[in-house]
Amino acid sequence: MTAVFHGGRLDAAVFKYGGSREDWLDLSTGINPSAFPISEVNVASWQRLPDEAAQTNLLTAARNYYRVPEQAGLVGGNGTQAILQILPFIMVPGKVAIVSPTYEEHRHSWEAAGRKVLAVSDLNEAAHAAEIVVVVNPNNPTAVTYQPAELMDVAKKLNDKSGFLIVDEAFGDVMPELSVVPQLLDNMIILRSFGKFFGLAGLRLGFAISNQSITGKLSARLGPWSVSGPALEIGAAAFSDTNWVKNTRTQIKQNSEDQIEVIKACGLELTGNAGLFMEFEHPDALRLYEALCHKHILVRPFAERTTRLRFGLCKNMEELERLAWVLKENV
User: Which parts of the chain have pLDDT scores under 70?
Assistant: First the structure.
């Protein structure tokens, strides 16, 4: 099966276009460029197997942060990627509809498990077409968003045929009002990523929220120590830092709006904004992608949507000015 192409392949860009990693401005992902500040990690977190108290501490902090209902289950793993690859093996039989285009690892995981997958552009159409519906909210890469009421309606329709709704809220931290976690139904599974908003993707930490039966099956498949000791400690601290979370949400929204205005002024048309990334349209997007690469700026192109480019968030005004200069020279 063909591997899925992702952003963040800076090593390949360096090999093809030259320079050192330090020369490049990497805007190919949706990872917060201003990461949560890590204080010194307890040496025991590195030296010992993760203990139950540390796991409980993380899950308690995550429950509060994600607003998980008391009766619901929550399980952590080595990133949401590890969790979504397990889902096809524990879910009810039936067709799977994925609201597309979206994060391709969903399709890849279900097809690798031998499940029939339908790519559907409309959320309501997906609910009629299959027993299991997968939707990413905000969507990656298009930044399309769905209101909680829309998703709850789909979940209820699926419940009538014993189906499930899987909502990937990997980029939901910037827009917590879109989350359906507080309204969770038994036939819903919510995926949450830690590393994107907190800017610590290399930590590899993600969660699934669902009924106790589903999270129990996931936990059994993930096995013991599915979250490392340092990730348990850092995750709990980050979730509990309410001031950092509040200020970061505000800053990301402001920075994304500033970046959008700059890119629009260069002649590109905005098609969606998820805060940590934004998608634009340009009739000659692939040529523009190449021109940016030659100036050591990496964004995300799409082989099947050749007029679209996705831009991650610049860290500061210096990076934004560098991006603007290259765009103006090449648009």
Answer: 1-8
